[in-house]
Design a protein that fits this description.
CATH architecture of the largest domain: 3-Layer(aba) Sandwich
Number of domains: 2
CATH superfamily of the largest domain: P-loop containing nucleotide triphosphate hydrolases
Order of helices and strands: EEEHEEEHHHEHEHEEHHEEEHEEEEEE
Radius of gyration: 24 Å
Number of helices: 9
Largest sheet: 6 strands, mixed
Oligomer: single chain
Low-confidence stretches: none
Mean pLDDT: 90
Shape: elongated
CATH topology of the largest domain: Rossmann fold
């Protein structure tokens, strides 16, 4: 196992005669033996960042540490890491055995040693019965494991994954996520995984690094980021649907006001607030809103049945929010309903959009 640290990473590209700053001082510590997900919308530079860790891109400024050693000038082959790309890059004309063995053959390893290493790695990934099959005969999850086996066969203790599940359909993605997490726990290797998929981040990560505007916007375990986001940008990005953000003001540390309504802030939250009055934003997850009780009146604009739950889009005056209900309610379009927003899971953000809790 090995740790990774990024210190002040900057990277720019020239596009159409313009210099575009992609990474603007990324600082990130990736613990030894943990599963770290770098989460960002498309175009934020997450693939560039993982390629810099791998040595496939050269940063303009800053240092990359692998195992407490600066590797800025160390070529990729000497960084003792493995990388799996989005398309897996499995050779279709080779069977599984030769796909896994390929990097060992390049190293001119003895035939008997190659056979031993391939079989050991395949057994570890539970694909030892597939060694004589071609990629076309494998499921998406099996192809993923072949790509990981080929990456790990050299004995790397750092695994970099660049959106490896994005080409799978929804059902296979669910299975592959579970397999990947179980594999990481079993092998105790350090994994860095980049994705734009929040579900993947929530399911897989020991810690999530949210990349935004060229920097790490937030770093924490998934549920802390979900329940207590650092700022309104993270709150509005993480979650599907995202956290509702309601602009209003604090009358005092115990009361939030918007659209003529007063919302009581639970004591456990109010006593931690760094502000006690003025403009503020209340954050509440759609599933934390109670329907059929409370003093807030809302009009139902949209009803989306999603199986075990139903998503509602409602308006409160000029404010539109999402509500998720799990139990059976009689909901009618364009009808008024009562809501209770005084949840124990509220978040309060100051006028600058920062989480106001100490």
């Amino acid at each position: 196992m090995v740790s990774v640290a990024l210190k002040g990473i900057y990277k720019s590209f020239k596009r159409k005669k313009k210099i575009v700053d992609v990474l603007k001082g990324v600082d990130l510590d990736i613990p030894d033996g943990k599963f770290t997900v770098i989460l960002a919308p498309s175009g934020e530079g997450k693939t560039t960042l993982i390629r810099i860790i791998a040595g496939l891109e050269k940063q303009d400024k800053g240092d990359v540490y692998i195992g407490n050693k600066v590797v800025n000038d160390t070529p990729p082959k000497d960084r003792n890491l493995a990388m799996v790309f989005q398309n897996y890059a499995i050779y279709p004309f080779m069977d599984v055995f030769n796909n896994i063995a390929f990097p060992l053959k390049i190293m001119h390893m003895k035939k008997e040693d190659i056979e031993k290493k391939v079989k050991e790695t395949a057994k570890m990934l539970q694909i030892d019965e597939l060694l004589d099959r071609r990629p076309s005969q494998l499921s998406g999850g099996q192809r993923q494991r072949v790509a990981i086996a080929r990456a790990l066969v050299k004995g790397a203790n750092l695994l970099l994954l660049d959106e490896p599940l994005s080409n799978l359909d929804a059902q296979l993605r669910t299975v592959a996520r579970a397999e990947l997490k179980e594999l990481q726990r079993r092998l105790h290797i350090t994994v860095v995984y980049v994705t734009h998929d929040q579900v993947e981040a929530m399911v897989l990560a020991d810690q999530v690094a949210v990349l935004h505007n060229g920097k790490i916007e937030a770093l924490d375990n998934p549920m802390v980021l979900y329940r207590k986001p650092k700022d309104t940008w993270v709150a509005g990005f993480i979650g599907n649907p995202p956290m509702n953000l309601i602009d209003g003001e604090l009358i005092d540390e115990k009361t939030f006001s918007f659209e003529g309504y007063k919302i009581k802030i639970p004591t456990d939250i109010s006593k931690k607030l760094k502000i006690n009055k003025g403009k503020a934003t209340l954050g509440i997850r759609p599933e934390d809103i109670k329907v059929g009780e409370g003093n807030v009146k809302a009009i139902v604009n949209l009803i989306e049945p999603l199986g075990s739950q139903t998503l509602l889009r409602v308006t409160i005056g000029k404010t539109t929010i999402n509500v998720i209900i799990f139990q059976t309610h009689t909901i009618e379009l364009n009808k008024e309903m009562s809501l209770d927003l005084a949840s124990d899971n509220l978040a309060i953000f100051d006028k600058n959009g920062q989480n106001a809790e100490k």
